[in-house]
Amino acid sequence: MVEIESQVLDTQGRFIDFLKSFRDSRGEYKYRLKINEMALKKKQSLVIDFEDLFSFDKQLASFLIEDPKKIIEDASKAIREVMFIENREYAESVDHFIARFKGILQTVPLREIRARHIGKLVSVEGIITRMSPVKEELKEAVFRCKNCGEEIPYEQVGSKITYPPHVCEGYGRKKKAPEFDLLYEKSKFIDWQKLVLQEKIEELPHGQMPRTIEVIAKEDLVDIARPGDRVTITGILSIYQEYARNIGPPIFKTYIEANYIDVISKENYDVEITPEDEKKILEMSKDPKIREKIIKSIAPSIHGYEYIKRAVACLLFGGEPKIFPDNVRVRGDINILLVGDPGTAKSQLLRYV
Asked: Does domain 110-129+202-265 have CATH number 2.40.50.140?
């Protein structure tokens, strides 16, 4: 295991050197240009290619994998320092910047995540199956003492609200802890969202159920992916304790605190029909067996399920919207609900929609 001593290694300074000095294959200062682009587009995150960092400073790249929490924090501070050089006005207007890393050299299969990965930077591929609504996480609370009226900002760490160690004059003499009001309008919040990542079907061992892991996305990572999207998530493998009735040893559950989400493929996309395609479609429409051919063309690698494939075909073509004499409009859209055991190709069938 690599041990990092902050007193000896100036990781922030090394990141500043990387951002200012790294040149791409064309000889351009890649990240200085990106930082200027951040100011133009009003962004607060800089995406860094891991291969660039590895080629520039292998030791720093190794530290990133082993102690990502500290190194990402130092990299984020380095972005601010370089931004002050490139665009001081924008640097002063932004509360904080975030370093995000993509292209980790080795991807860990979801099924092979183990205790040795806890606290490390990992990259996992899979399919988003669920996502929560965007919520707000309290990062810095501003409290007002009910006795003296003093307002105190206090950084929040953990899952519960923590209060500042404040003792005002009135309560100090009585040795009684003060009471606070939380001022929501002056506190700082960030966007927060929970995703569920499921392992890819092609990696699923025969006879096994697909495994999942929770992913926490924050700030500009929320709503990047949708259920059904194939993604590569880079983040810190973290843990939280599962609460039980004091039975057995303390057990912890893993989750990924996302640093970067790369959407490999989206399920919804626009199809452009050319005049040549239209001609072929009209020719095919004259085929008396066109219905059977369309049904067989849906998920051809999956045997059976003829009635489901027929329903999927109907969904793809849709129905005719109707408007009744009283101006009530009925949509022509067709919806499908597939219910079944895990591993029975439900997702694979719907990938053809």
From this structure: yes
Which one is the CATH code of 136-190: 1.10.287.1260, 2.20.28.10, 3.60.15.10, 3.30.565.10? 2.20.28.10
What is the C-alpha to C-alpha distance for residues 315 and 313, in angstroms, rounded to an integer?
5
* Domain spans, the chain: 11-102, 110-129+202-265, 136-190, 275-350
93-140: per-residue pLDDT in tens? 888 899 999 988 888 888 888 989 899 999 998 888 888 999 988 888
Q: Which CATH architecture has domain 11-102?
A: 2-Layer Sandwich (3.30)
Q: pLDDT per residue over 147-206, tens digit each?
A: 777 788 888 877 788 787 766 655 545 555 667 888 888 888 989 999 999 888 777 777
Of 173, 185, 189, the C-alpha closest to 135 is: 189
Q: Which amino acid makes up residue 305?
A: Y
- Pull the structure tokens for residue 192: 């927060």
Contact 345, 299 (CB under 8 A): yes
Q: How far apart are CA 168 and CA 175, in angstroms?
A: 10
pTM for the model: 0.68
